């Protein structure tokens, strides 16, 4: 097992991709600080409790939609090597359905406001580089990406307009800070209800082009299946697992555990993926 002794800050990792990524990293020798609205979520998690006792896991109570809480998470984590941001669109509340609007969530700007807070409070280290930043997004967000979806799942993605506006806002913020090209006509522009008025002038937000170490991962439709990559590795056979590309893949699904596998693999092969936006699918 290759070692990956990183100091990691995980935001939105109480479950799913963030959690599975954190567990894989802990298994490789990393230290992980979790920002959690309810640290009690791990009270019955024997694995995490073991890492807490060994000092490899820190739990910080806080809410990523509050700037003072993200600032405290950075401070308590120490010098961070990598940030995993996996705040999910259905993290809070129960989504409702509208014939006109599709799926509606009770906090429509959760991802965008959380990434703004995380970036606005990110420290500048005197003797260390910027953290590697991995952000979990989604396929099918933009018009071009939606057109590339398999026909059978296009209707479902059409109902995700509300949650996807939030993800587009999140990606827009990242593109601004990283200095990436953003096609407003094709990709859309988030409204003030998503990113807030004057978001570009928020104190602490990295200036355009100064956010240097970012990877946006856009998984296909997520499932609760097993990690195919682990199964293939254990078999010793050369078989296809998931695909990774900067181009649209037109894939149907990928499991959360395989997405987490790629998160950790990307951190281990960072030079190949830094400053990219990639799709992952079977």
UniProtKB/TrEMBL annotation:
This protein's name: NAD(P)-binding domain-containing protein
Organism for this UniProt entry: Mycena maculata
Highest taxon in the source lineage: Eukaryota
InterPro entries, per the entry: NAD(P)-bd_dom_sf
PANTHER family: FLAVIN REDUCTASE-RELATED, UPF0659 PROTEIN YMR090W
SUPFAM superfamilies: NAD(P)-binding Rossmann-fold domains (SSF51735)
């Amino acid at each position: 097992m290759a070692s990956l002794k990183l100091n990691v800050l995980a935001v939105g990792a109480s479950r799913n991709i963030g959690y599975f990524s954190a567990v894989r990293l802990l298994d490789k020798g990393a230290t992980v600080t979790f920002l959690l609205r309810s640290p009690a979520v791990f009270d019955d998690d024997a694995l995490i409790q073991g890492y807490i006792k060994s000092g490899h896991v820190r739990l910080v109570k806080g809410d990523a939609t509050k700037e003072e809480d993200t600032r405290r998470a950075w401070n308590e984590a120490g010098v961070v090597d990598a940030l995993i941001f996996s705040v999910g669109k259905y993290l809070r509340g129960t989504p409702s359905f509208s014939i006109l609007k599709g799926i509606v969530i009770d906090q429509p700007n959760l991802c965008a406001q959380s990434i703004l807070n995380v970036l606005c409070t990110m420290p500048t280290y005197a003797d260390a580089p910027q953290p590697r930043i991995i952000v979990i997004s989604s396929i099918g967000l933009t018009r071009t990406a939606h057109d590339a979806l398999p026909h059978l799942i296009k209707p479902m993605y059409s109902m995700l307009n509300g949650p996807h506006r939030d993800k587009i806002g999140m990606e827009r913020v990242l593109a601004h800070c990283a200095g990436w090209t953003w096609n407003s006509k094709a990709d859309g522009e988030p409204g003030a209800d998503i990113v807030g008025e004057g978001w570009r002038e928020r104190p602490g937000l990295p200036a355009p082009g100064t956010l240097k170490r970012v990877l946006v991962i856009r998984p296909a439709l997520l499932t609760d299946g097993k990690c195919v990559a682990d199964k293939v590795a254990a078999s010793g056979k050369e078989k296809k697992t998931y695909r990774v590309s900067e181009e649209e893949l037109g894939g149907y699904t990928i499991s959360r555990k395989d997405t987490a596998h790629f998160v950790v693999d990307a951190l281990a092969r960072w030079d190949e993926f830094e400053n990219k936006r990639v799709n992952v699918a079977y």
